[in-house]
Amino acid sequence: MPSRQRELIKMLVLATMLADHVGRIFFPDLLALRALGRLCFPLVAALLADGMLRTSNPLAYGLRLLALAVVSQWPYQLAFDPPWGRALLEPILLLRAPALIPLLTWSPLLPEGNVAFLLALSVLAVGLLKARRWLWLSVVAVAAFLLPVEYGLYGLISIVVFYLYFTRKLSASFMVLALCLLSAVMAFLSGQTLQVIAPLALIVIFPRNGLAGLKFRLPKALFYLFYPAHLLLLGSLARGV
Fold first, then answer.
1. Residue 127: which of 83, 163, 79, 174 has the closest Cα?
2. 191: left (phi over 0), alpha (psi -120 to 50) or beta
3. pLDDT tens per residue, range 101-133
């Protein structure tokens, strides 16, 4: 992916993410904001797949995303799951064993993990795909399906599809078809019909050589920190923290 196109996609990720989260928290009935938000994850998935092609150290890449996930989890819970987010505001609760039980035991009561956990898991999946470790890749796919993490198996498969496309192991037409089918299945299973418009993000992903993009380069640290920072701000405003 050309660097200018990559920078444009990064800016679109931040804009669509912010629109989606503002709509989800403050204006849940404003479908325009949620519709913009459906374009965000395919853009993120394409960036991660491209990053796996460019990185010289996949392990460090995955650990960086895992660290982002850990740092972002409390702001994510504050923004979207107030009971969990507010509980972590009270340090005294962390000293009580009962308060830790739901965090240590897999059950439907576990809070949903933010999308950065899924991205870190996807780095592992792509690495296993490259190494042709099919059994372990299946284990990772099952984990993405079972664990309460944002986007789950849909997100992992989307990233793998982009990776296969960027490595020319998947044709453009098959890539488009796969993403359309994934979005339709996700919309049906989640009941979020707006998810079907997610493939529209391909408009800026697909023309890898024909898009002018941006000359401006977004600092890497700013791109990563925007995620927990904007969640913390929106969650604090919404919950009156």
1. 163
2. left
3. 444 334 345 578 999 999 999 999 999 999 999
